[in-house]
Amino acid sequence: MPGGEDLFKVLKKAGGESFKDFSSENNLNIKFKELWTFLSKVRHSVTHNESLINFGLVNKSNHHTEIFHFLFNSSPISEDTISIELDYKKFERLIKRFSEFAYQVFKVLSIEEKLELDNKNITHNRVDGPASVN
Fold this sequence. Notes:
By secondary structure, this protein is mostly helical.
C-alpha cells in the first residue's frame, strides 16, 4: 500500500478533474496538497523525530503557519527547531479537519465513479478557527 507522497498521487489520479475542483473549493477551504504534505511532515516528526520539526517546514507559507498554530501547540527548542506539543483540545480540531478531508476524498471518488451522492441532503459542521484555514 502506498504511503505519503505516493498515496497522494494515487488519490489525485483516481479523483481526476473532481479532485482538482474540490481541492480549490470546498466548505473548509482545505487545500488538499498543502494539508496532506503538512500533516505528513508533522506525523513523521512526531513518530520518528521525538516531535521535533524544522521551523522552516512550519513556516513554509502563511497557510502552513496558520494550519500549524490552529492544530498544534509548540515550543522553540533552538533557532531552527520547535517541539510539537500534542493537546487534547487541538487534537479534536485535528480529527475534525482530517475527517473533513477524508469526506472530501470520498466525495471526489464517488463523483468520479458516478456513484449516487445527494449533496443537498448532507450537512457540514464547521470547525472554528482562522478564516484562512476554515
